[in-house]
Please model this.
Amino acid sequence: MVTSPKSPQNNQASSPPPPVAAGSGPAPLTTEEQNAVGILPASHWTDQPIEEEDTVDDGASSIGSFTSTTASLSSTIFEYRTVHGRTYHGEVGNAEAWEPNDQRHVEAMEIFHHAMLVQLDGKLYLSPLDKKKVHRVLDIATGNGLWAIDFADEFPNAEVIGTDVSAIQPSWIPPNVKFEIDDCNREWTWAENSFDFINMRMLVGVVDDWDRLFRNAFRCCKPGGYVESCGSSISFLSDDGSVKEGSAMDQWGKVFTEAGKRLGRPFTLIEDDLQRKGMEAAGFVDIEFVDIQCPMGVWHPEKKAAERGLWYKIAIEADLEGYINYLCNLVMGWTPEETKMYAAAAKKEWNNPKIHGYFWLRVMYGRKPE
Model:
């Protein structure tokens, strides 16, 4: 039996620095600051011998194009920021999203959506929903909108609203779906008791105040309705010591953790038990959670676990540099070449069957009392 990660109890972490203003970017961590938390110097990765075939190939050219137009929106929404050749959302609220919004990353999101379905055995949600009672649904940080579209197909009589800070959703959508530009970190403007179900998937490194997020969700959720949050840990673990200290997989958790502190938007969703604490503080009841151990790669002897690991690896490798560009280049202060070589080292470890790394996914849901 797999042992799930224990939920910390009243851990008092040091206060993170205040969030940086949207669009301005944080001051990079100094070398001394990185060394103090065990992050290796960026030059370490450029010194590693990586064979040509091990360098990162995002694979986007082999995936069909994913068109996105939202002509009715103000053109200012498309005034994106550029960081080392990748584009990010413009100024919307207090948002500081670390994932790109360009075509290359949108295509990777398609694969990620499928990878998440594989993690949940083909399910879009785990909350015990009654289809007859689900009439209005909110999908926070919808990304490319595929979850909202699939949910709308499964619930044709429900209105589904997807929100995001980037207008990257498709224009051809089911009639019961609509997308809006919004930052979930601001006070929500929907009326009290508006939604039967609110979905929040993979908001690690996005939310600046998880308690406020769940307070907003509680207020906007109808009595008897459900709010569900799916997120992942940021650290790779191994039960046999094959994820070694100083390896690319070991450094992944350190880099993301410290970058989240500098941004004021934590990646330690599971490590600090932010979902449970936020839901309980907001007033949700019947809170349940499911922990899923996800291998990174195909090393696991069990077929289902290996499939989960394969699809997650494919999804991240579809735009690996896109996932780390903002954090490594802008927050850590690495050069694009150093970031590229770190990505190559991580990919090499993920494809090594002798390295038995995994991380945790947690799906937590709660009901608003009637």
User: Anything to note?
Assistant: The CA atoms of residues 299 and 353 lie 5 Å apart. The beta strands are 81-83, 86-88, 136-140, 159-164, 177-181, 195-201, 221-232, 285-295, 358-367. The longest strand covers residues 221-232.
